């Protein structure tokens, strides 16, 4: 079974930093903002490492935690060999696991953290993730100065970093259960249409979660997907009603909640950090929703294999939160 | 749902590009670049007393230099993403692709970064440009023009 219930796992705190475009976007509850993409460093990669370091430093000091009180740091990002998280982790004296599920990395790290805490193998775990628009452009697309022409289906990688403290202490946000998704390849090869790559995985994971947990869709006050974007969101909704007979009403896609329409971000935001940004800076801080199902979606692409014309697998992991 | 049905579903939600608008845009901007270049050509021929062939070579160099400088100053990529084929197809696009790779990779070293990525985008243009020129020359020799 791919779904698991957790005991005594809570989210204690979160710290985020956002980039210059996100600062002027729709979200306003972030902790810090950068004025430019270099953030005082020589290269964009080094700027992203610094962003991770800043959020981790701040999360530790805000919660008066010393490094030896943290049992584990779990992190991931989009850059080769998850190097941003690895290099950042080397600046701390905390045991570290690097994880990768593309844009579903954040929820993957929450699931691992929750499993360990629920099994009483750890008390405090920090999950960290980040993405930087210009690093992702260099990694997956063209040199950044090139300004390559984009299709309307392509999404815009957000620039931000967040760190979240997961603990066994009671707080008002409980991590209740989770469903680990299966990668699905529907033969879509277009890396400029990641919504279409990820939508089948998101629909499958949602359906599996509801079946295995024996819940109806109305059990949740809100279903939030990671970064399907404006195009992927429509495909997801049609797929759910046609294939799984689920009519989703209380629904939001994090990719559509970060930028304003005038910010020219095509189909919306993407990146592992898009989901936690919206989750903490829009959903959890307003306390409007009690039962929330978070479905992070990832497009597991590789430039080489996409050029070899293979279909790109999509993945989606779900985690259920209860606001007490 | 099988893969074919799914691809049909995806197609349905793909926003349509306005090809006519893009074409008109590219025609006007590309034409403007050509107009400026021709003006430059005439200027060079009249003021420096150059032959048409020599003046064209100088014009080409000036356009390449200008586009590269615009890339370095950081606004040509914005222009290009808006003007699309209008700036991509003339020499400006070639110059921009080379200088943007150079700028982007210079921090990874002169050999491992700048040197090995310099023609990252423009390499195909050079290779297939030379190849098609070669084939056309053969055709010309055969039909004896």
How would you summarize the topology of this molecule?
The complex is a heterodimer of chains A (324) and B (145).
Chain A: E1 3-5, E2 10-18, H1 20-23, E3 32-33, H2 44-62, E4 72-76, H3 83-89, E5 96-98, H4 105-118, E6 124-131, H5 133-140, E7 156-157, E8 160-167, E9 173-179, H6 194-212, E10 222-225, H7 229-243, E11 251-253, E12 269-270, H8 274-283, E13 291-299, H9 303-307, E14 314-323
Parallel strand pairs in A: 2-3, 4-5, 4-6, 7-12, 10-11, 10-13
Antiparallel strand pairs in A: 1-9, 2-8, 6-8, 9-14, 13-14
Chain B: H1 3-13, H2 19-47, H3 52-73, H4 76-83, H5 85-88, H6 91-105, H7 110-117, H8 123-143
Radius of gyration of chain A: 18 Å
Structural class designation of chain A: alpha/beta
* Broad shape of chain A: globular
Main sheet makeup of chain B: none
| Shape, principal axes of CA atoms of chain B | extended
Overall domain count of chain B: 1
Class based on secondary structure composition and strand pairing of chain B: mainly alpha
Architecture per CATH nomenclature, i.e. the level-2 architecture of the largest domain in chain A: 3-Layer(aba) Sandwich
User: Which protein chains make the most extensive interface, counting residues with beta carbons within 8 Å of the other chain's beta carbons?
Assistant: A-B, 29 and 32 residues
What is the H-and-E element order of chain B? HHHHHHHH
Distance linking N and C termini of chain A: 27 Å
Low-confidence stretches of chain B: none
């Amino acid at each position: 079974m791919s779904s698991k219930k957790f005991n005594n796992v809570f989210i204690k705190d979160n710290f985020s930093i956002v980039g210059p475009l996100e600062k002027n976007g729709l979200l306003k509850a972030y902790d810090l903002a950068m004025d430019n993409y270099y953030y005082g460093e020589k290269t964009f990669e080094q700027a992203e490492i610094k962003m991770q370091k800043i959020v981790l430093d701040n999360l530790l000091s805000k919660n008066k935690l010393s490094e030896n009180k943290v049992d584990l740091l779990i992190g991931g990002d989009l850059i080769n060999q998850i190097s941003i998280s690895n290099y950042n982790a080397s600046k701390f004296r905390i045991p570290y696991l690097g994880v990768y599920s593309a844009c579903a990395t954040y929820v993957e790290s929450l699931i691992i953290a929750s499993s360990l805490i629920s099994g009483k193998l750890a008390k405090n775990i920090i999950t960290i993730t980040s993405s930087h628009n210009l690093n992702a452009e260099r990694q997956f697309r063209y040199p950044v100065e090139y300004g390559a022409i984009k299709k309307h289906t392509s999404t815009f990688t957000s620039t931000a970093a967040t760190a979240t403290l997961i603990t066994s202490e009671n707080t008002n946000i409980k991590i209740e259960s989770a469903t680990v998704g299966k990668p699905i390849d529907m033969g879509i090869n277009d890396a400029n249409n990641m919504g279409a790559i990820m939508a089948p995985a998101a629909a499958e994971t949602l359906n599996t979660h509801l079946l295995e947990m024996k819940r109806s869709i109305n059990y949740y006050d809100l279903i939030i997907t990671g970064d399907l974007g404006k195009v992927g969101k429509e495909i997801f909704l049609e797929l759910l009603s046609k294939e799984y007979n689920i009519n989703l009403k209380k629904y939001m896609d994090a990719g559509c909640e970060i930028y304003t329409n005038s910010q020219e971000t095509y189909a919306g935001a993407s990146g592992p950090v898009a989901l936690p940004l919206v989750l903490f800076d829009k959903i959890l801080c307003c306390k409007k929703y009690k039962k929330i199902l978070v479905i992070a979606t990832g497009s597991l692409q590789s430039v080489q294999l996409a050029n070899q014309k293979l279909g790109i697998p999509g993945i989606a992991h779900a985690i259920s939160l209860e606001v007490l | 749902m099988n893969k074919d049905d799914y691809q049909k579903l995806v197609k349905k939600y793909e926003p349509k590009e306005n090809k006519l608008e893009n074409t008109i845009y590219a025609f006007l901007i590309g034409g403007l670049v050509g107009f400026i270049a021709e003006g430059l050509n005439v200027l060079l021929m009249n003021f420096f007393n150059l032959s048409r062939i020599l003046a064209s070579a100088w014009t080409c160099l000036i356009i390449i230099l200008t586009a590269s400088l615009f890339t370095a100053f950081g606004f040509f990529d914005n222009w290009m993403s808006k003007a699309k084929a209008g700036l991509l197809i003339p020499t400006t696009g070639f110059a921009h692709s080379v200088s943007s790779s150079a700028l982007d990779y210079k921090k990874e070293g002169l050999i491992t970064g700048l040197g090995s990525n310099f023609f990252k985008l423009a390499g195909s243009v050079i290779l297939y440009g030379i190849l098609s020129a070669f084939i056309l020359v053969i055709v010309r020799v055969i039909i004896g023009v």
